[in-house]
């Protein structure tokens, strides 16, 4: 899977940019605030039509403009296609080979991308909502059916919460049963994904950190021990029954998949409490590598890897371990950094080098890094 060409207009601070990326490493360097992350965001939007920065549509559009465009020529599965996004404050339009698409499933898998940015380590330090957001996005990238069941669960949850807030709660039992049914599918798909990720995580953590520490990830839904959908549904019904009084008191659903958490551990201990900053960064990056393996197993090709602000994210040893690993794989990588070449020290890959300044992109050539 390769991005062969990228064209951007009026996106954030980028008036116009055109890039023909290299097949393996692409280094985008420049001072902070020049637009490097914006370019990675544009690539990610081509993969999912959503931002990894959780931005709103008006934020995409350059000041004093009304429309932004992103177009990418993609090579995947031996064939070429063109994805085009038109972004306006009122909405977005996605076209594939000139034809408009209405459903997220039409874009799914056309261009897969995994991103690692400084904000990603927040999933370790911050609350469960950040880890759920990561989990839901990662599951969806490889499982298009997850988006449908996730939206279905939240539609039912909204209706149940509405009844809890109203004086007339007739029908609450019916909506509770529907919530358990939808929640069981959400949990089943999350469990399957995290089990796959956990099997891949340890190897990548050892590669990046250079240590023998044991990294682990697990999803432990409250009140649920089962793995089969029907059994999960029954346990959710029991969970909702146990929380009935607190639901009524607070007029909201106080338990269920929308409140669950991920457990991230190192040597069997919570990563948040016992992991150093370097260990936490290595752990999250290893998670991203495991995501890439998962997507490759599903689609038969590795996704693109977007590494943002690598100047500050890893020390020299971890960075060298990562780059040597990536060089051994057939992956197209986009790296942003404040300096020209430190991200590729120790590798023998050829690298396309681009300078970003004030939203303007300049190709400075292709270089071997020994």
Strand count: 15
Terminal residue distance: 26 Å
* 3D shape: globular
| CATH fold label of the domain at 1-112 and 301-370 | Rossmann fold
Elements, N to C (H/E): EEEHHEEEEHEHHHHEHHEEHHEHHEEE
The level-1 CATH class of the domain at 1-112 and 301-370: Alpha Beta
- What would you give as the CATH superfamily of the domain at 1-112 and 301-370? P-loop containing nucleotide triphosphate hydrolases
Instruction: Round the mean pLDDT to the nearest integer and report it.
Output: 90
Query: Given the helix and strand composition, which structural class is it?
Result: alpha/beta
Strand order of the largest sheet: 2-1-4-5-6-7
Structural Rg: 22 Å
Please report which band the strand proportion falls in: under 5%, 5-15%, 15-25%, 25-35%, 35-45% or over 45%: 15-25%
Please explain how this structure is put together:
The protein is α/β, with parallel strands linked by helices. Helices cover 44% and strands 25% of the residues. The protein contains 13 helices and 15 strands. The chain has a six-stranded antiparallel β-sheet with strand order 2-1-4-5-6-7. A six-stranded mixed β-sheet has the order 8-12-13-3-14-15, with helices on both faces. Strands 9-10-11 form a three-stranded antiparallel β-sheet. A hairpin with a 2-residue loop joins strand 10 (262-266) and strand 11 (269-270). The mean pLDDT is 90.
Write the layout of secondary structure elements.
Blueprint: E1 2-11, E2 14-19, E3 25-29, H1 36-48, H2 57-60, E4 67-76, E5 79-88, E6 91-96, E7 99-101, H3 104-107, E8 113-116, H4 122-125, H5 128-142, H6 144-165, H7 172-209, E9 215-219, H8 229-242, H9 244-250, E10 262-266, E11 269-270, H10 271-274, H11 277-299, E12 304-307, H12 310-313, H13 316-327, E13 333-337, E14 350-357, E15 360-368
Parallel strand pairs: 3-13, 3-14, 8-12, 12-13
Antiparallel strand pairs: 1-2, 1-4, 4-5, 5-6, 6-7, 9-10, 10-11, 14-15
Helix pairs in contact: 5-6, 6-7, 7-8, 7-11
